[in-house]
Design brief:
By secondary structure, the protein is of the alpha+beta class. It has helices at residues 3-14, 25-31, 58-64, 76-85, 100-107, 128-151, 158-171, 233-252, 259-273, and strands spanning 19-22, 41-45, 48-53, 69-72, 90-94, 113-117, 176-177, 182-185, 206-211, 213-215, 218-219, 222-227, 284-286, 293-297, 310-313, 316-319, 323-326, 329-334, 337-340. The chain is elongated and about 70 Å long.
Length: 347
């Protein structure tokens, strides 16, 4: 059985259900091996994956997914009649990915017991192929950051840096950036999710770039800090504190370690070494087909990290009077520790 199909049927078994329905675009893309389809409905039951699509997509879907059963979607009744004939009794559905209208039209009329699950959880454990794509995505963004370190000069604007990064990743095989690139100079770096401005770089101030790209549907995420000239002693201490917290977080990553424990390790170190400062965001998040997905590295994620899941570690300190520092890497969780996908960009 396809490993992705096995994940779904293992989840059905875990919840003591008999079926699973999906309307999520990202899970559709994940399950159907990146076949471009505008619309589909998926039913998993009895170790079989049924997919309803319109006539335009049947041929390509069958060609790229020989292990699924393809049905023609004529209208909503073709879906409902088929599902009702399967005599569903307990059905999992993606509560965080289904719209109210979709629920009302495609799920509620099934007259089955509907059990809510988080759609992101299906994609937590990555396959070898997915890890390879995530590594390639990370390689592209690392190469882009190293390019910027040589390209950026005093007098360039934040907007110009973001534009250069976009051009570079596209030229090197990415299809897009994975989120709006954050480029901030000096005191602007204290704004955690700032947008690039016309502010021009001055000597002796922080350059913060938080960026990622998409390669064959998979995202990357990295944050690096550098400067031209010399930082003030206070900013240098801030940088070294965050850098060490980043390293501690990476060192603590291992399969079956609780996400909140890793967050606490980074958070406690910064509190101890920076006037009881509390990081104003989670220390990390999952990365995959979406830039933010499960698992999480924060105060409230009390689940163990699974082998071959992918997470970021991104502690930070932000002071509006002088600037902010965040250092971020993307990591594969292994049974023996962490494999850093973004190691090709120096810190």
């Amino acid at each position: 059985m396809d490993i992705k199909h096995q994940i779904i049927f293992d989840l059905i078994k875990e919840y003591k259900a008999d079926s699973f329905i999906s309307t999520s675009p990202v899970n559709r893309e994940w399950l159907l091996n990146n076949v471009a389809i505008d619309f589909s409905l998926i039913l998993a039951k009895n170790n079989k994956i049924h997919v309803f699509v319109d006539e335009r997509d049947i041929a390509s879907l069958k060609k790229n997914n020989p292990k699924i059963i393809v049905h023609l979607y004529k209208d909503v009744n073709s879906w409902l009649d088929f599902c009702k004939a399967q005599k569903l009794h307990t059905t999992l559905f993606e509560s965080n990915a289904i719209t109210y209208d979709q629920y009302d039209i495609y799920a509620k009329p099934l007259k089955t017991k509907l059990v809510s699950i988080n759609a992101d959880d299906l994609r937590i454990v990555k396959t070898k192929e997915e890890l390879s794509k995530l590594q390639k995505s990370a390689d592209i963004i690392c190469k882009a950051i190293e390019h910027l370190k040589k390209w950026v000069k005093v007098g360039v604007s934040e907007k110009e840096v973001a534009k250069e990064l976009y051009k570079f990743v596209i030229k090197n095989g990415a299809t897009n950036v994975s989120f709006p690139t954050i480029v901030s100079f000096g005191s602007n770096s204290a704004d955690i999710h700032s947008s690039p401005t016309d502010r021009k770089l001055k000597r002796n101030e922080i350059i913060l770039v938080d960026a990622g790209c998409i390669y064959e549907g998979f995202c990357s995420d990295i944050t690096r800090i550098w400067w031209i000239g010399k930082l003030s002693p206070m900013l240098m201490k801030m940088y070294q504190t965050v850098l060490h917290a980043n390293k501690l977080g990476i060192q603590s990553i291992k399969a079956n370690v609780i996400g909140s424990k890793i967050d606490n390790i980074c958070r406690t170190y910064i509190k101890k070494n920076w006037n009881n400062y509390d990081i104003p965001h989670g220390v990390g998040h999952g990365v995959g087909m979406l830039i933010h997905e499960n698992p999480r590295i924060n105060k409230i994620y009390h689940k163990p990290l699974l082998e071959n899941s992918v997470v970021t570690i991104e502690p930070g300190i932000y002071d509006p009077s002088i600037g902010g520092v965040r250092v971020e890497d993307t990591i594969v969780v292994t049974r023996n520790g962490a494999k850093v996908l973004t190691s090709k960009s120096l810190k």
